[in-house]
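Dear colleague,

Following up on yesterday's call, I've attached the two folding results inline so they're easy to grep. Please treat them as preliminary; we haven't cross-checked anything against experimental data yet. The first protein's sequence and structure tokens come first.
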Amino acid sequence: MLLVSRSTTAYHHGNLGPALEDAALELMRTQGHATLSLREVARRAGVSHNAPYHHFGDRTALLKRLSERGMAELLGAMREEREATAGRDPQEAAVRIGSTYVHYAAQYPERFRLIYDPEVCVPGSPSEAMAPLIGGVEAILAETTASLSPGGEPRVIAALTTAVWAAVHGLAELVVAGHISEAEARPALEALLTQR
């Protein structure tokens, strides 16, 4: 009996990349990304063990792609919230946008960890695909922070943006690590961002 690898079908339909990414994300849900192997990913996707190497080249390239995908999801969620809060009270909008960031981390802790893994996305040296995604997240944070202090000096707004990002990211990290619940993060954001 002749056994044919199912990878031929994936290649034929042009969906091998997304199939491998989805398989990797499923595995990461239970084991994180530190021990993820391309052989496991291939097995989960139902393709030959060489298929991931043909498509991504190596494990690092797959992790970079998954990191970019995660950042695109986070940015998309933040953009949706920014649009939903357009014209509202700037403090309410800031809390909701910050809560969206925390919610993404709570919903997808394994993806959030990967996005900010310095070995995958080297600080100061993002991939060509990652750079605009990081820029998009930073732009939303900067716009949101600037709306809290209209007419503020640019250098003060820049410093405040860094502080707000640090606070929101820190809350997300605490939620991911299990030190606080997502429900506890929102009142913290309200206390921080709604002071008159």
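Below is the second protein, in the same order (sequence, then structure):
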Amino acid sequence: MLTPHLIETGVRAALVEDAPWGDVTAELAIPADAVLSTRLVAREGGKFAGREVLRAAFTLTDPRIEVSALAAEGFAFDAGDVLAEISGPARGVLTGERVALNFTQRLSGIATLTAAYVAAVEGTAARIADTRKTTPGLRAFEKHAVRAGGGSSHRFGLSDAIMVKDNHLAALGAVDAATTRAALRDLRERAGHTTAIIVEVDRLDQIDPVLEAGVTGVLLDNFSLDDLAEGVRRVGGRAVCEASGGVSLDTVGAIARTGVDVISVGRLTHGARALDLGLDAV
């Protein structure tokens, strides 16, 4: 969850990064008593995300800056739409501008891409989820943007749930059905009863031993469409069935129609481009 504390911490760090010893241009070129009124204007259509982050970028720069008419999270906009109005001391507005734009352009880009994936699976039961493939230090911001675009959040980090992948199984010495089943049953006994256990498989024959160990989710990694459909049939509702790997806007609809419950898409965060938003003086 993107809390006020996380917003302030992240935005303050970005402001310090951008102006570690102050904004020499604004301080030398702009009179101290100058005021400036601006609008955040969309140069292209999309979904908006980062309203409170934008507000913080300006008010943490100068608390006298007023941010109003802010678009709602997830708001669908067209080119030319005004998404916010910002006015106040000119030095502060100009100093906070780039940080505000960097955040809102990035987060709106993620929300827009997520919305496209969500639209592509409409009419199915599949949910679009993000992954841990996020920008270091910005995970809460980027996962918030996924939700603004209509997506779901996968585990936030390694502390949230148990996810056993191929390298984990290799480290456990799980080389066949029997050793895999035994290792996962031991894990199930040692984990708390409220802890989710998701296991990644890359072959159909791995599904039954995993389910017999009592896991809560099975991740079908890089399966063909036919194998995904067969995997869903074998899982048979005994665990959450997730698909990942090779997911694009061209393939996600067909993947959803195999009957999987969740489709995790790393490119929602690591592959989204920043939207073109600008701050125009009025």
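For the second protein, one point worth flagging: The CA atoms of residues 46 and 189 lie 47 Å apart.

Best wishes,
A.L.
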